[in-house]
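Reviewer 2 asked us to include a model.

Predict the structure of this chain.
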Amino acid sequence: MQTISSSFFIPREGDEFNKLYKRVRIMPLYSFPHLKDMNLRLKSHVKRFFVHIDFDAFFAQVEQRDNPKLRGKAVSVGGNGGSRGIVMTASYEARARGVETGMSVVEARKLCPELISLPCYGPKYESIMANLQNMLKEYVPEECIEQYSIDECFIDLTPVARNFFEAVSIAKNIKANLKRLENLTASMGISYNKTFAKLATKLMKPNGLTVITRENEYKIHSMPVTKLWGVGRRNGVRMQVNGINTIGDLSKAPFGLLRKEFGINGIVFGRLARGEDTSEIYRKEKKEKSLNHFHTLSEPVYKSEDVKKEIRRIGEFICRKMRFKELVAGYVYLALRFEDLTYTSGSLKLSQYTNDDREIYDASMVIFRHMRKPGIMLQGRQFGMGVYDLHLDTHTVNLNLFEKTSSLPFTAMDKLKAKFGEDVIRVGIEC
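Predicted model (structure tokens):
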């Protein structure tokens, strides 16, 4: 089992690396297809078969799978195990009590006093998505797979399916394999374009499979306009003022009105609603320039051993990302934000390109010695680490003939951590 290595933060262009501090999820890769993503020479796709896969209450379902005592109970993921934090996802038992994604744990517990709030364990969820993508490669070429978010992906079945009947058969096979391999359920939507496939998924949850063709796309037209990706609450209100309440209403709206109200995005909304989404599977081809990870602690720390432990934990996670992508770094960046929201940071050029936990930790401690230290009066709340000047790993190590180094089976340890947790095995590092 591998851990997917996508960064949780979008690398920002600019001369100051500390701009990376702004936490923005890299998923979804984009909110909805833009005109530049569409083939404007086509009015709509013909004889294409796109599948959208969406795990059901993903984080909560994984926790219920791994802990039988949580099954059938109201569970949310995203808090710190207490009363702080935001609900990232909730089980269907919690949703039935009014708990929704995005609300605070405090608010959720008012609606559902028996709610069990669990912390988010990103590496575990990412490894499951990585396993799904590896399994999908048995059905279609890699270029036909798009990971849209941490719990969603698109597949283009056109190369392997001649009609919707064959596409449905393959989708059912994928669902069965997913259940067998991960013991998880996912809802699927199948259609001739990505937008309708994504909307079809919403029609039957959980564990559903819905097919939308040109003959039954009226099912899509009856859905509220806010179900269309890119149309949020505010845009939904503006559309309702103009008499657009459903996706069907949007499909009939004049492009002039949509352009006037929403600019170029209005044209995109109209095309999506009319089934004219001609976008293809999107794959990130841009060279990775940096990887970084920031972690806000539920309780601030100031003791030397606690600070070093957090730096080491973040460093190990960064190295796992690099090894998965077969990258090595030439620079390390370390940052620490205090309780008063001020921060200190520093960077260091490495003596050689590496993705070794020990070398990254040693470099981080060199940086830390020149940084402002947390104390009992002003403790550390958030730690961050980044690596940049990335290159492909050529697996060439120990260039110094007079320095003896030991090779460790990092790949095997990464697999153990992904399956059993971060603390199942550690590299011996003197803290």
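The first helix runs from residue 58 to 66. The two ends are 29 Å apart (CA to CA). We have added this to the supplementary material.
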